[in-house]
Amino acid sequence: MQRFFNRLAWRNLSIPLKTGALFLLQMVLIAVIAVLAFVGLGMVRNWLQTGVASAVEMRTLSQDLQTKVETLQRLETRLVEQRYGWGPSFNLTRARFEADYAAAVQEAQTSVERLEALAESVLTDDEDWELLERELRAVRTGVIGSERSFTAMLNLIESFSAYTGMTVGRASVFGDELADVLEATGNQAMINDFAALRNLEADVLSTGDRMALEAFRNASAVFVEDYAAQMPTYNRLADIPSMMDEYRANVEQAAGQLAQLDAMFRNSQDLKDELRLTTSRLNTFTDAQREVQLARVASLQNHLRLVLIGSLVVMMAVGGYLTYLFGRSLTLSTRDLLRVLQRLGQGDLGARALVAGSDEFSQLASGFNEMARQLEIAFAGLEQRVAERTRDLTITAEIGRAVSARRDPRVLMNEVVELIRSRFGYYHAQVFLIDEAGEMARLVASTGTAGRQLLARQHALPVGSRSVIGQVTARGEPVVTSDTDSSGIHRRNELLPDTRSEMALPMRIGDKVIGALDVQSVAPNAFDADIVAVFQIMADQLAIALDNAFLQERLDELEASMRALEQRLTREAWDAYRQARVGDAPLGYELRADRIVPRHGDLPSPLDRAIASGSVVMSENGHDEGVQLAVPIKVRGEVIGAFGFGGDTLRGLSEDDIGLIEAVVERVGLALEHMRLVEESSRRVEQEHILNEITARIVGSTDVDEILQTTVRELGRVLRAPQTTVQLRREVASDE
Prior knowledge:
By secondary structure, the protein is an alpha+beta fold. It has helices spanning 2-8, 15-81, 90-122, 126-160, 167-185, 188-207, 210-230, 240-345, 360-405, 409-424, 448-456, 468-475, 529-579, 605-613, 655-699, 704-719; strands at residues 428-434, 440-446, 460-462, 479-481, 501-509, 512-521, 589-592, 595-598, 617-618, 629-635, 638-645. It has a six-stranded antiparallel β-sheet, with helices on both faces. The chain has a three-stranded antiparallel β-sheet with strand order 9-10-11, with helices on both faces. Helix 3 packs antiparallel against helix 4, helix 5 (167-185) packs across helix 8 (240-345) and helix 8 packs across helix 9. The longest helix is centred in the middle third of the chain and has 106 residues, at 240-345. The protein is flat.
């Protein structure tokens, strides 16, 4: 019996039994906590589903009401802002406006009804309920009033429509007709007076202001009087007064309708402001209700949190004590293993653990001892391999430095193959590159006398041929021939008779193979997997260096071409600018007796030489009109002019002074180029403006005669041509 109880003692239990007992007890504690949490979460869930969710939805609905008010506002604003653009097509778009507005109103009313339904399950205070009902009634009233106001505005705008558009459009049409009639009389004074009257018309129709309308009435009456007094009897038209009356009536009618529409829009704006205040109060109210519900849930969560914390404290205390017992037993059992492990870590591979039984720790100790024995055997051979790999990596780093320091591709490849042969002590090394057609791998670098002979006869092998180089360039993978005597792909070369093993590495740029690095040895089996990996890195470095060298050459060529193109374009632009100068506009200026005057005629010799050579020219005698120093003005490398300086003070100029002058002249060149570009841009903008203006007047016409007349009139005005003619092609009869 005593033996049985000893077997059940904690220190005598096996690790699986200890772990199982500890796990079982912790699961019981976790189950208790889970039951408590499940009950508490159920209570919280009920609160969330009833109070909080409803309060949050009420808050969302009140915000949605604000959005609907803004939607109604946007529809009204869009309708009123486009009042000048509505014409006969308004009947086609009115249905869409009414549908959009009705949809927004319906959504707002639906939100109000949903708010009332949710309030029944959330609000418990009669005062809160009465407050909510009052605000909802205000929203309903405001929405209905907005809908009525919107319908009234629609009806008013619909009454604006006429065959040419709104009443505003009819007034403009009468104005255009009167302008054409007056234009036919040729009386410039009356034409100018009527143009002033049209400006007053534009003020009235754009603002609807009563003062502007009164000014228009007075001006129109004065115009009729002036017409009767100033127009000669033989050129006077009897229908001008009646046309003016009809023109004035249309303008007054349009102004009245626009003023009415603006008044209706302002009233609607006031109604929307009231709705915004109401919905803002609703937001505040619903937000407060949400906070109340959240506070209730938070209180319940606090109680639940206290219960769970207490349970966790108990669980942690019990579990901590059991974990301490379990950890202590493991610590005592593993102390000897840790001691052995420390000795192994310090390099004592002869350390062994004590095996005192057949339990788990005894089995672990046996495993430690076997591992130490294997490490002791492997370490002896590892030192030699590490020394070899260190040497290989050192040589590879040296070759890598040589690769990064060379820019000439041919010098780079020759140096790399020579370093490989001399540092690694191999029999032969060479580099092949694939030609542009991708068919031949041509030898471009090789070592020794045999290499020079192979290069002299332009040695090459077809890509994909039955050879080491052919296979590696075709497959893009390393190819190693351990023994050339038994290899089926090695092609013996009479210049390299001592080759016994060969290794070829693809030179790759991404997925593209550009060539191969070939290394040969006089010993069989000279290339293992580690050597192949080292040399593959070297081959990739060489490929990248070659690609960079080729790209650099191409980049230099492109840079030179870009500079030449930029210089040519600058020269052509300045040639065009000089040719476009108006009349005798000067291209140069000079300072004479403290006055700046234009310069004409031939340039002094130093300036000519500075422009031709593009460099500073110094003249000691100063006979050429006193010019002793000429500094060229350059823009993007192109000489566009020169500065000339003269006087006795120039004889003592230093290099720093000349450098300062050159820096200032360089800034002048940049400023001149900037102003040339600004002038060119301004001309283009002016042309585009004139073109858009004429096009806008033509596109608005629907009659061929009106298009032709408008085009003639606008082109004559722009070109200031007293006579402008347009003629459509006549139909030519066929000879048959």
